[in-house]
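B., you asked whether I could sanity-check this one before it goes into the benchmark set. Here's the sequence:
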Amino acid sequence: MVNHDDQEKKRPSEDPEGTRPTRLGRPQLGRGLFLWVIVLGLVLAIALAANKMSKPDAREVSQAKFEELLQGREVESVVVKDRWVYGTLDQRAAAREGARRVKANYPSSYTTDPTTIDRWRSFLPTDKPDALQFPSTGMLPAILINVVPLVLLILLMVYFLNRQMRMANARDGAFPFLKSNVRLAHKERADVTFGDVAGVDEAKEELQETVEYLKNPEKFQKVGGRIPRGLLLIGYPGTGKTLLARAVAGEANVPFFSLCGSDFVELFVGVGAARVRDLFQRAREKQPCIIFLDEIDAVGRKRGAGLGGGHDEREQTLNAILSEMDGFARDEGVIVMAATNRSDVLDPALLRPGRFDRQIVVDLPDLKGREAILGVHARKVKMAEDVHLGVVGRTTPGCSGADLEAIVNEAALLTASRGKKAVGQEELEDARDKVLFGRQKKSRVMTEEDRRITAFHEAGHALVALLHPNVEPLHKVTIIPRGPSLGLTMTLPEKDQYNIGRNECLGRLMMMMAGRASESLFCADISAGAQNDIQTATKLARKMVTQWGMSARIGPICYSDEEEHIFLGNEITRSKAHGEQIAQLIDEEIKAILEQAYQEAEKMCRENADKVQLIASALLKLETLTVEEARGLLAGRTVEELLAGRESQAESSVAQAADKGAAREKTHDEGPATGDVPRPVQSPA
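And here's what the prediction gave me:
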């Protein structure tokens, strides 16, 4: 058996573009602080030295005092600097005055007067020809004081700007504005293939043609065919658009350039356009290859919309992308792939033939696709033999591939924390509930009255799910707080739903209103726990009236306004699609539909009051009921019998685990096992 983990460890690190960050990916703070201390100390030393050179130490005296010392012939030498006159005293005068040097401030006209200079020279010793000096100030002190600190400050700013840019993009070094922040996956690193992608069979079929072209372009060129050079992957977040692009590169065994749309947007106008040109130039040098632009809507939004002008950085970058894609030669082996979940905001020039003319929709997976995705991710973890991935797939409608991967990973973490060796069905379902609804909050302290209200609220939901023919079957009901909810009633759809009828909408509204109706019938008061139910029901009723034409008074007319404003400029000029009378009529119809659903839910709870109380009492004791246990209660079983059944089931599970462990040990004694990881058992679709 080949250990792939060891191969990954032995493989030399690949960094062809020099994009490796600093050691451990963290800035070296100690080194930067030490450099700061050295620079500041140097600046202080220079300032002190310049100050000492420009201003010698001396005690200031008045002009009269200085003249008195001169006339008393107690001054050995005099130095004149501008308006300051410095004198060096003899031993006796220095002892009396307490300073060896003194200085006095004279007017500039006085210190330059020849008469004054001759008079001072007459009082100085005649044996010292240099007793009276007029030294020039010099440029060095002025330079040290004024220029050097400024130069050091500029150098420090450049250094730290360079350091910050190295941390952001270590490959480019100083001023990495013009080079693209591209991540290049070489042939030996593009290890994702179509076998690692599941749930998007139609998208893989469309991309297979691109793979064949990258492998053998002469096959298409002989008949004059031209493969589309721009492929746009459109789908919800987490559906696997980036994974599909990498799988195309892996199948074709070509280099893969990956870049996010936000990497082109910088502070300086024109930087993004330069990066686009650099990216396409580097791609042409390694053709055949794939350029993948993730989140292209960051730079590909419609030009001219909103309040801004047409010369901002985003539009210049978009123009560069359009120009580069339009300049491709027929024999170039550069395929540009892009991904977005907002295709409605893209510029029309991006979607015209010759650019992103092939749009591939990556939908949310259906039931079969969800089960296949779970199977792909289940290969990476140890699964128990009794796991049915189809049950988890049925209970996760609307989940993307990323959600399903998170469920499998969370199940593995739960298995390890519980001390088990393989992921079981219980861990998968607990992980599903945790990912979709939040973590259980068993430690939350609730009063008995709050638990009672929650139990009757969830019992109303569960009753409608069990008895109403137009509601999806019940799967589980619990009063354990999870996420923001105090309780949860979960239904299990029998198949993927691509359409919804009016009766089913009314059944859903009835189930949502059953919680509030049960509270009003069996509790002394109603609570705020029905907030989410009322909000969801109102949204559904509004869609029935304004979008789906399910109201007899409104008719098959769409009165729905845009729910979100893509551009500010369009929002300002948008007008309402209907008048005040229609708006009032819409509100009346929504209210009538919701009130009808509430009355029918209240009627069902009143007619089945004993069943609601039975379910609520079981929830107060057991906290969680499965669909089998709920049906058993309605069939006449007691809570004690349900509790005894749980205990016997737990004992049988422990016994089965012990038998499997003994059989495994016996197998190891008889001979080597064929594999350490059991394959997951999937339920039939």
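One thing to flag: Residues 1-29, 169-178, 563-574, 663-685 have pLDDT under 50 and may be disordered. Otherwise nothing jumped out at me.
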